[in-house]
Amino acid sequence: MVSGLINENPTVYERKERRVRTDSTNSDEFSVEPIDQLEIFDHIRDIRDPEHPYSLEQLKVLTEDSVEVDDLKSYVRVTFTPTVEHCSMATIIGLSVRVKLMRSLPPRYKIDIRVAPGSHATEAALNKQLNDKERVAAALENPNLVEMVDECLSPSFE
Amino acid sequence: MAALNNLTEHLEAFVDVTRSPTHHAESLKAIATSLEKGVLSINQLVVEMDMYLTTTDDVVRARGILLLAEMLDYLKSKPLDNAVVHSLIGFFTAKLAEWRSVRGALSGCLALIKRKGVAGLVTAVDAEAVAKSMAQSIQVQSLALYDRKLCFELLECLLEQYPEAMINLGDLMVYATCEAIDGEKDPPCLMVAFHVVELLGRLFPSPSGPVASEASDLFEFISCYFPLHYTHTKGDEASIPREDLSRGLSLAISSTPFFEPYAIPLLLEKLSSSLPVAKVDSLKCLKDCAVNYGVSRMKKHYKDLWPALKDALYASTKTDLSFGLESLTSPGFEMGEIHRAAVNLLQRLVKQDISFLGLVVEDIRVNMVFDTISRYLRYEEMLDTSKLEVLVVSQILSVSARSSVESCNIIFQTFFFRLMNTLGIVEKTSTGDLVHNENSTVSTRLYHGGLHLCIELLTTSKDLIPSSEECTSTPESAQQSWCSIVSRFSASLIEAFTSAVQSSNDDCSADAYLGVKGLLAMGMFRGGSSPVSRSEFEKILTTLTSIIAANSAKTVKWELALKALVCMGSFIDRYSESEKAMSYMAIVVENLVSLVRSSHCSLPSPMILEATSEVCSTRPTYVEKMVEGFEEAFCSSFSDFCVNGNFKSIENCSQLLECVTNKLLPRLTEIDGLEKSLVHFAISMWNQIESSVVFSYDFNGREFVEAATKTMGEIVGVASVDSQNSIIQKAYNVISSSTLLAMESIPLTFAALEGLQRDLSTRDELILSLFASVIIGASPKASIPDVKSLVHLFLVSFLKGYIPAAQALGSMVNKLGTGLEEACDTIFHESSASGSSIPSDDSSKTIGGSEALLSKICLGFYGSLDLQTHAITGLAWIGKGLLMRGDKRVNEIALVLVECLKSTNSSGNALHPSAMKHAADAFLTLMSDSEVCLNRKFHAVIRPLYKQRFFSITVPILESLIVNSQTPLSRTMLHVALAHVVSNVPVTVILDNTKKLLSVILEGLSVLSVDSVHKETLFSLLLVLSGTLTDIKGQQSVSDNAHRIIECLVKLTSYPHLMVVRETAIQCLATLLELPHGRIYPFRREVLQAVTKALDDPKRRVREEAIKCRQAWTSISSRSTPF
Question: Taking every annotated instance into account, which residue ranges of this chain make up the domain MIP18 family-like (chain A) (predicted)?
Answer without folding.
Answer: 39-107
